[in-house]
């Protein structure tokens, strides 16, 4: 597992890269005439942008922003500056300082009631405590952050929290809990994220499989991720995936030669993209492989190349790791003075941090080097420091264990005392009761005899009354049974009538279906009525068609489908013909429909894909809310992705706009729209989801066939996959040939 720690350095480093491209632009802006508040804003952004390049420069800008925000008493920018300074301290490995700064910024955000920023800071407090080994504290911060994310619908931070909780459980060796959180993160990413987000989570899941020694599952996931990046032509993502596969070959199979084959491919792509942090990471991992092959001379060459890249970017924390690797390699070649030089440089970096693991590695490295140089006094000094650290950790663990045991013992002792007092009390009461029993026995017997005589007389009188009551109760039960049966019949009849209404609504589409060369809809409600619906309409120049997936299924979904269907028709009546504008109109209508007079929002809505096809030319305009469209022609399958925004009041980024795409279609090309019910169905031999990849494979197999035959094949494949499992959702698949 030698690469795992270094891979974490890379992931932390990459987070700041997104700002780097704006640095020059921000510096120029700083030279213009700005108000104090505007200057604060630019200083904070500039500090964030420089974190990946130079922590020292980033720190200077953050401190300037902090001083200026205090001077003008701007609490918002003051909190932002403290937060940014905390990020810099964390990157430098000064986690205690980072935590202090995060807490100060959190206090200000709390006064400002900025719930979203509070969630972000709580998440970062969790990360810093995790890096200090305070895993329980980290989990508590993550739980608080998660609560606030759910209140503010902050999907991005929520995704980060699930991922970070998974990392904590990985460190604790609780792999099932780690996987559970990663899978939750994956589920949200599949709903709201993009291919890169999905790839990152799958990489983390693969790390767990690596830790469990499940090589096949790890390699399967890494290759899935690589394929995702290749399909999106993401050069940087491909480089990272190849690097992870290389690490897996090294860790799981100890195949250092194969590992470096992947490293060399990754390095070529990383250089092409220009990601220096990734280049340094790959160079270092390549050096580690040569160390594994005992080729320490070549290992040193690669370590030095990696170190030079990190030195340029001022990534001191990662540099320390490489310095220790250089020390070990030089020691193996008996270059002891070099080994000492590198170890001491690394120690100078990490001794200012609070990272227990890295400081321990530094003392261990120096102890071994000084021992090899026969400098036993210095060797003993570092061995003693190492021993004190381990004793401290053991002592802390021992004290914690003793405290727990003491608490258990105190609780046990208290319980014992309570039991003794209860026994003594019981004995005293028993003596008193004996005397009372003797007195009461005679009186009780006499009274009992009299009562028995009275009861016998009364029972004879009541027997006839009881029979009358039983007959009356039985009549009521039969009557209630009939009422319940009638109500069930009325409810079922109402739902069946709702089905007729919904069917009539959808059957209006059949006239428009004749406008297409070929057309089919596979429509399978989970219950009597459906939350999925399809829609076709036209204006003078274009044909419109859509498939929508409303929140829920059954009666609630059916109500939502009617709102959606009528809103789409209303959009055309108002001469709204752009798919993106139709989506905006639909979003507004659904939100208004689901907001009560008391401004109480119902968290419901729909995912939808809308297509506009010109009548005179095969030009398609597509717009989607979460849902996508698929086109197939001559074995080439294309996915038109929907916007990452939900129709209605669901968990989504309200600032995201609905976008649309234009494509030219060829004669005979197929267009498919679908809800997620088909791909999400559980089944098969292992009871897993069918998944979008298998759905697309089916489409590739059938797209040349007549559409009535395609519909039958899709139905057959669905039933074959579902066999033995309950249908989990409504299903709607539409196919059109142009």
Query: Number of DSSP helices?
Result: 26
Q: What is the total tally of β strands?
A: 13
Shape: globular
Mean pLDDT: 82
Low-confidence stretches: 1-21
CATH topology of the domain at 508-737: Phosphatase 2c, domain 1
Strand content: 5-15%
Summing up helix and strand content along with how strands pair, one would put the structural category as alpha+beta
CATH class category name of the domain at 508-737 = Alpha Beta
Q: How is the main sheet built?
A: 6 strands, antiparallel
Distance between the termini: 54 Å
Q: Provide the helix percentage.
A: 55-70%
The CATH superfamily of the domain at 508-737 is PPM-type phosphatase domain
Whole-number radius of gyration?
A: 35 Å
CATH architectural group of the domain at 508-737: 4-Layer Sandwich
Give structural notes.
It is a single chain. By secondary structure, the protein is of the alpha+beta class. The protein has a domain at about 510-735: Phosphatase 2c, domain 1 (4-Layer Sandwich), CATH 3.60.40.10. The protein is built from 26 helices and 13 strands. The strands form 3 sheets. Strands 2, 3, 4, 5, 8 and 9 form a 6-stranded antiparallel β-sheet that branches. Strands 1-13-10-6-7 form a 5-stranded antiparallel β-sheet, with helices on one face. A hairpin with a 2-residue loop joins strand 6 and strand 7. Helix 17 packs parallel to helix 19 (about 355-370). The longest helix has about 130 residues, at about 375-505. The protein is globular. The two termini are about 55 Å apart. Mean pLDDT is about 80; it is low at about 1-20.
């Amino acid at each position: 597992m030698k690469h795992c720690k270094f891979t974490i350095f890379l992931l932390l480093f990459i987070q700041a890269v997104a700002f780097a491209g704006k640095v020059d632009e921000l510096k120029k802006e700083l030279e213009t005439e700005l108000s104090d508040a505007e200057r604060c804003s630019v200083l904070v952004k500039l500090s964030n942008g420089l974190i990946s390049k130079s922590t020292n420069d980033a720190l200077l800008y953050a401190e300037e922003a902090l001083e200026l925000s205090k001077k003008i008493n701007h609490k918002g920018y003051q909190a932002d500056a403290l937060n940014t300074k905390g990020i810099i301290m964390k990157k430098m490995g000064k986690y205690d300082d980072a935590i202090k700064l995060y807490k100060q910024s959190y206090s200000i955000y709390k006064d400002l009631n900025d719930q979203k920023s509070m969630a972000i800071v709580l998440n970062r407090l969790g990360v810093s405590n995790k890096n200090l080994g305070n895993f329980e504290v980290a989990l508590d911060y993550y739980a608080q952050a998660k609560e606030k994310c759910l209140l503010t619908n902050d999907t991005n931070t929520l995704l980060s929290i699930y991922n970070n909780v998974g990392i904590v459980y990985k460190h604790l060796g609780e792999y099932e809990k780690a996987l559970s959180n990663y899978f939750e993160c994956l589920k949200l990413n599949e709903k709201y994220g993009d291919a890169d987000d999905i790839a990152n989570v799958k990489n983390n899941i693969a790390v767990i499989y690596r830790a469990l020694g499940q090589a096949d599952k790890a390699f399967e996931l890494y290759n899935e991720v690589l394929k995702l990046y290749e399909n999106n032509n993401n050069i940087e993502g491909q480089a990272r995936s190849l690097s992870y596969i290389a690490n897996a070959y090294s860790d799981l199979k100890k195949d250092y030669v194969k590992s470096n084959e992947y490293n060399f491919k990754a390095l070529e792509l990383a250089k092409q993209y220009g990601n220096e942090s990734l280049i340094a990471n790959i160079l270092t991992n390549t050096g580690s492989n040569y160390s594994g092959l005992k080729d320490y001379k070549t290992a040193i060459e690669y370590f030095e190349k990696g170190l030079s890249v990190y030195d340029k970017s001022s990534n001191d924390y990662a540099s320390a790791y490489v310095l220790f690797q250089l020390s070990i390699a030089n020691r193996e070649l008996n270059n002891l003075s070099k080994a000492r030089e590198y170890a001491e440089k690394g120690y100078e970096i990490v001794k200012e941090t609070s990272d227990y693991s890295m400081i321990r590695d530094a003392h261990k490295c120096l102890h071994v080097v000084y021992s090899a140089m026969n400098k036993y006094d210095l060797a003993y000094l570092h061995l003693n420091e190492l021993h004190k650290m381990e004793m401290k950790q053991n002592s802390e663990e021992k004290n914690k264990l003793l405290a727990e045991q003491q608490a258990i013992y105190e609780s046990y002792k208290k319980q014992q005392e309570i039991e003794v007092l209860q026994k003594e009390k019981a004995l005293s009461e028993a003596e008193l009761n004996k005397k009372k029993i003797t007195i009461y026995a005679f009186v009780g017997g006499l009274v009992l005899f009299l009562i028995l005589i009275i009861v016998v007389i009364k029972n004879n009188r009541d027997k006839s009354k009881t029979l009358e009551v039983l007959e009356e109760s039985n009549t009521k039960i039969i009557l209630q049974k009939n009422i319940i049966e009638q109500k069930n019949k009325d409810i079922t009849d109402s739902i069946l009538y709702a089905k007729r209404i919904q069917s009539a609504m959808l059957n209006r589409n059949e006239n428009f279906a004749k406008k297409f060369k070929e057309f089919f809809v596979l429509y399978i409600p989970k219950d009597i009525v459906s939350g999925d619906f399809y829609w076709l309409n036209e204006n003078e120049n274009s044909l419109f068609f859509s498939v929508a997936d409303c929140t829920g299924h059954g009666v609630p979904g059916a109500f939502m489908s009617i709102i959606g269907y009528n809103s789409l028709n209303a959009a055309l009546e108002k001469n709204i013909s752009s798919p993106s504008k139709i989506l905006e109109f639909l979003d507004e209508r659904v939100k208004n429909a689901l907001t009560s007079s008391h401004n109480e929002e119902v968290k419901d809505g729909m995912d939808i894909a809308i297509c506009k096809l010109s009548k005179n030319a095969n030009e398609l305009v597509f717009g989607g809310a979460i849902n996508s469209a698929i086109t197939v022609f001559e074995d080439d399958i294309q996915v038109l992705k929907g916007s990452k925004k939900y129709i209605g009041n669901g968990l989504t980024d309200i600032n995201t706009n609905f976008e649309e795409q234009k494509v030219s279609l060829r004669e005979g090309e197929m267009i498919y729209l679908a809800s997620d019910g088909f791909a999400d169905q559980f089944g098969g031999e292992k009871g897993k989801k069918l998944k979008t990849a298998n759905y697309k494979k089916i489409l590739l197999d059938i797209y040349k066939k007549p559409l009535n035959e395609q519909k039958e094949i899709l139905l057959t494949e669905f039933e074959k996959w579902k066999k033995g499992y309950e249908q989990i959702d409504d299903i709607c698949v539409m196919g059109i040939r142009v």
